Amino acid sequence: MKAIADIRKQKDKAAKGEKTRQEILEAAVHIASAEGLEGLTIGRLADELHLSKSGLFGHFGSKEELQLAVIGKAREIFVREVVDPAFQGERGIVRLLAMLEEWLAYVGRSVFRGGCFFMASAIEFDSRPGQVRDLIADLSRSWLETIENEARHAQILGQLDTRTDTGQLAFELHALVQEANWSYNLFQNRQAFDQARTGILDRLRQATTPGLLRLLGKKSAVKKKPAKRKEPK
Amino acid sequence: MKAIADIRKQKDKAAKGEKTRQEILEAAVHIASAEGLEGLTIGRLADELHLSKSGLFGHFGSKEELQLAVIGKAREIFVREVVDPAFQGERGIVRLLAMLEEWLAYVGRSVFRGGCFFMASAIEFDSRPGQVRDLIADLSRSWLETIENEARHAQILGQLDTRTDTGQLAFELHALVQEANWSYNLFQNRQAFDQARTGILDRLRQATTPGLLRLLGKKSAVKKKPAKRKEPK
After folding, report:
1. Cβ atoms within 10 Å, residue B52
2. What's the rounded Cα separation, in Å, for the pair B183 and B191?
3. Which candidate, A38, A192, B51, B163, has a CA 20 to 30 Å from the CA of A15?
């Protein structure tokens, strides 16, 4: 009986430890998005959470381990907030649009205190070789490829013109959301979300097959000036 | 005579001081582009330049003053490397294209060790209110507006369709260069420059008046797959 009680105690302790770890990471990810992953020292985190440095060291042996764990947490949040809802849409152009829409919405509701975590950490770490940089690059590439793959799937379904260069299309769609993130966080410019959407729809209109044009509306968006805030967007 | 000699000595001293200040800023701007403006402490700079901290304090009274001076230096470099050469082109679409081309070329030759200084510092400081953030935002907005103004000038010259929303166009052109900067610095992906150019030409083709289409070539670039590396780019 004592053995079973001990096992239960150990399990409880492990579960509690994991819960604390997740709470630490949740706080850390927001600090990192606003102040940078490099500014996220164990000391800084201990201050914010009113925990001891030695306690934090028990969870994360080094600053690099903490940074890697924070990126893992940010990935989990991104999947929950952007990928999962978008993947409820049917494959092809509907899902492609949903991915971009959910990504824009996540930027707009400031899921991370300092704007998109991945864009911020990419810019911060692109000149710092190492495991942290590699993980950020892998996850960023993976999202870009997910966008491209969905465009390719839309081609297979006959929704996008097979002559469309999907790598080019993904580059441009991805650029528009990143620009909205930049503009919103630097200028508090919410109009940037409409500008990104206008660009996205325009890119997709250019690439869709004639049968699908009805879905997206026919006119080129760049050629059209917004009608002085009369039309609801 | 002694008075004149004293004035000359003072002038020499001031000139020497200014030269040293410029050399310090030149080094600082590269450190900041790679490691962040916040990582640029007077101590870090003293180490890199083998100067005393007190000597550096003589030039820059505080970290914030140093950061503001570094941004001023970065602006000077951006003007010399991008704005000045682009402004040699004639007004309108030629200058608009030159601005984007020179900006891409500056990213491609890594004028700043860590990629475009302004994009890096915008992402770093967008969540840190204060003078530094305001200056970065002002300069970033000013460049975006310069792009838009040139597009508007191209409309006045009859080169761009007057129905084109120049704010939208500037947003999209700016997005493409920023994406190339992101992709090149994170993935060492030089193809990103071609992708940005393809997008830029495509946006301009969409907006040009029929008479100008010959200047840019007629086909939509997004619709065209690159012919498996046969064509020289």
Report:
1. 10
2. 9
3. A38
Q: Which residues contact A214 (CB under 8 A, 6 or more apart)?
A: none
Q: How many angstroms separate the CA atoms of B189 and B88, rounded?
A: 29
Is A183 an interface residue toward B (CB < 8 Å)?
yes
Q: Given CB atoms, is B207 within the 8 Å cutoff of chain A?
A: yes
**DSSP designation for B90:** P
Domain extent listing, chain A:
2-221
Subunit contact B36:A33, Cβ cutoff 8 A: no
The answer to whether A169 contacts B225, with C-beta atoms less than 8 Å apart, is no
As its CATH architecture, domain A2-221 has: Orthogonal Bundle (1.10)
Of A175, A186, A225, the CB nearest to B122: A186
Is residue B185 within 8 Å of A133, Cβ to Cβ?
no
CB-CB neighbours of A26 under 10 Å: 13
Question: Could you tell me where the beta strands, DSSP code E, fall in A96-206?
Answer: none
Average pLDDT over residues A18-25: 88
Q: How far apart are CA B182 and CA B179, in angstroms?
A: 5
| Euclidean distance between the first and the last CA atom of chain B, given in angstroms as a whole number | 67
* Mean pLDDT calculated for residue range A26-53: 87
Residue A115's contacts (CB-CB under 8 Å, 6 or more residues apart) are A33, A107, A181, A184, A185, B123, B126, B127
pLDDT of residue B17: 80
Please report the ipTM that was assigned to this predicted complex. 0.86
Look at A224 and B165 and tell me if their CB atoms are within 8 Å. Answer: yes
Long-range contacts of A187-192 (CB under 8 A, 24+ apart): A187/B137, A187/B141, A190/A108, A192/B171
Rounded CA-CA distance B178/B185 in Å is: 11
Q: In this structure, is the dihedral angle defined by the CA atoms of residues B17, B22, B27 and B33, taken in order, positive or negative? A: positive
Closest residue in B to A32 (Cα) is B124
Query: What is d(CA A228, CA B174) in angstroms, rounded to the nearest whole number?
Result: 23
Tokens of A58: 């028990």
Alpha helix (H) residue ranges in A36-165: 42-49, 53-59, 63-78, 84-86, 93-108, 117-125, 131-156
Strand partners, B208: B160
